[in-house]
Protein: RNA polymerase sigma factor (Sigma-70 family)
Amino acid sequence: MDQQSARKAVETVFRLERARLVAGLTKVTRDITLAEELAQDALVAALDRWPHDGIPGNPGAWLMMTAKRRAIDRLRQQAMQARKQEAVAHEIALHHGQAIEEIEAAMDDAIGDERLSLIFTACHPLLSLDARAALTLRLIGGLTTAQIARAFLAGEAAILQRITRAKKAIAEAGIAYEVPRGTALEGRLASVLEVIYLIYNEGYAASSGKAAIRQDLAQEAMRLGRILAALMPDAAEVHGLLALMELQASRFAARVDAEGRTVTLPDQDRSRWDRLLIARGLQGLARAGAITGADGFYTLQAAIAGCHARAARFEDTDWRQIAGLYDRLLAIAPSPVIALNRAIAHSMAFGPEAGLALLAELEGVPQLQGYGPLHAARADCLRRAGQLPQAALAYGQAASLSTNASEGDFLRQRAAQCRAG
Structure:
């Protein structure tokens, strides 16, 4: 194997194993930054050794053993320094009174639960949602600071500061590195799912920039969802969220044309929808429903996406079922955005006038002031109701509020079509 191929192989393996390494190392060191450094040390060692010695039969175990040795070396050095200074070392192994042998044993334990602990730590509700998302992409996703900055169209320094502050907040608050139990689990799991959903949504419908979709970010969110589903097989909403992401992602190839322009649901070529993702999403939806029923926040949204996925043509869409699902969703999670989506569904099921009536009720809601999708929904209802001049104005208003270039172009094009009659 040549040097370039070997390096690529090492980086691929490390990408797959990084979260496991950091999770296992954090379990012992109780220091996320130190765990990341040790994992990086193992990568450097692999880049040095594997091109010459070949890739080991169990590369993940090799990386963990190498990182473990680095950890033990550091802890021995710290213990020696502590004895010389006749003080108790601040590092975690000594702080907890662990012997080196105990540390070695702990490192050899199965680490599935440790990886889950790392996810719950990174997504602790003490942190802001943006901080949770950045830290999760760093620790579990293995993205670099530069990659996270590009994903969220933010400055690299700002993202680095966000991650650093999050780690510091975790350390200062003494957050337990563990999976919460009992009644605490539901609230903490909601925080984890919220983070994954945020990451996915930024990929599914980019809030700014030129691209309508950032598939790499959406794919990372789905990967995180699959990790969580494997570690928490009996959590209905975990399967509901993963099903939602897979069903929506199945339409990616049809959502933009060759020039990157937005293609609306009625005009999409459904032969380009990913049937494998649809099958997986529907299976996940069925599993979520079988665990605790289908009335979870993410499971209901997945059921809505499933209605679209099952329709061979746009005209076959069961809008009455979708409207009913939105009724249930609004009942368990009342919010202006869900109310807006419900109004759109009702307009499709019962006519544009029904949608306009529901939208009129939302126009005074403070959270929707200056919210482009509200004006876009109203424009669509007006267009379908034959009120083209009013529709053109509403499309123009929606376009002026959009921060995504592809979406803005689409809305301006619709406005022009309405003006042309």
The CA atoms of residues 402 and 408 lie 6 Å apart.
